[in-house]
Amino acid sequence: MAVQILLNLMTAFLWMMLIGDGSGSSFVIGYLLGCGLLMVLHNFLPKPLYLKRVWSIMKLLALFLRELVLSSFAVIRQILRPRLTVRPGIFAYETALSSDFEVTLLSCLICLTPGTLTLEVSGSGRILYIHAMDIEDAGQLSRQIQGTFEKAIMEVTRL
């Protein structure tokens, strides 16, 4: 992956030297040309394109921002109701993630989402104990975490 990034940057700087323009726009054009070159030559490279990982990271960030906004509105809706109808609770979530980095990232994303908080990770690193502000169905909440954050984290880390 580092070779691909270096090749892409070298292509951008080579483009800037060839056209004799040191502006940022010529760097961007050269970088985009380098991306195109990498896509054409990807069969000759030993690893998958680093652009796939960059795209996966951008999708994870967009997913987190969407969940952040949706859960913020859900918390605001609960706060503004005249009567509290929350059903707080703690549930155990078994994750399919294997590395410490993946579990830590999932835990951080859960903590940063309003209304949820990771309390503890088991010694094996496979079970997260999560406090949720409003649990209607712990199984449904587990499936939601698995289908959103966990799936996106696997896409980023397991290319």
Describe this structure in words.
The chain is mainly α. The chain has two domains: 2-44, no CATH class; 51-157, no CATH class. It contains five helices and three strands. A hairpin with a 5-residue loop joins strand 2 and strand 3 (127-132). Helix 1 crosses helix 2 (24-40) and helix 4 packs across helix 5 (138-157). It is elongated and about 70 Å long. The mean pLDDT is 91.
List the helices and strands and how they pair.
Blueprint: H1 2-19, H2 24-40, H3 50-80, E1 89-94, H4 100-112, E2 116-121, E3 127-132, H5 138-157
Please give a handful of descriptors for the protein shown:
2 domains, 159 residues, 5 helices, 3-stranded antiparallel sheet, mainly alpha
